[in-house]
Amino acid sequence: MNDALQFIEDFEAHYQYDAGFMKEMVQHAPNAYDHFQQFLPMARHREQLPLEVYWIAKLAAMMVEDCGACLQLNVRMAREQEVGIGLIQSALAGGKQLPEHLQAVFHYAQQVAGQGNVDADLMQQIQNRYSRGQLLEMGLCIASAKVFPTIKRAIDEKPSCALIKVEVQ
Q: What pLDDT score was predicted for residue 1?
């Protein structure tokens, strides 16, 4: 078994996540997998954003883009980085119980991910609170949420993209 497949299997075991689409990439499009691997650091990049802001934005965007499995993966990753269970549960419930500044992040991320216009008042609120660098970082966070479910949908991977009940532990 090559290193890439071992990495994927370790990832699957650690996060209890079906990464079959990644294995298929290694098998059927190895150069694409190499490029995908180069994308992963961008998908995880967090330098300027506070931890909770990053993960609320990531989860909110993933809720727009994904049917469940990738959202569950991101919940596990957020917990691994010690994001509070209450914050995660509040995000998964639509964000209404989040602290006010995180509610704004949640709705902002969902509107950006939804590719519509961001409400002008919300945009102003976000711009007043976060630096340009933080906004750009949030953009990477939101944009990267689209990649994984898009690849899975492109190969018609319906079983792993079925609706699931997301667990927070």
A: 54
Cα distances (angstroms) measured from residue 9 to each of 1, 5, 22: 10, 6, 10
Answer yes or no: are the C-beta atoms of 8 and 19 closer than 8 Å: yes
Decide which of 1.20.1290.10, 1.20.1250.20, 3.10.150.10, 3.40.50.2300 is the CATH code for 48-161.
Answer: 1.20.1290.10
Q: What is the pLDDT of residue 9?
A: 96
Please give the average pLDDT of every successive group of 10 residues along the chain, which has 169 residues: 90 95 96 95 96 98 87 95 97 96 98 92 98 98 92 79 62
Which residue in 145, 134, 113 sits closest to 42, CA to CA?
145
In this predicted structure, what is the pLDDT of residue 115?
Answer: 81
Report the predicted TM-score, pTM, of the whole model to 2 decimal places: 0.90
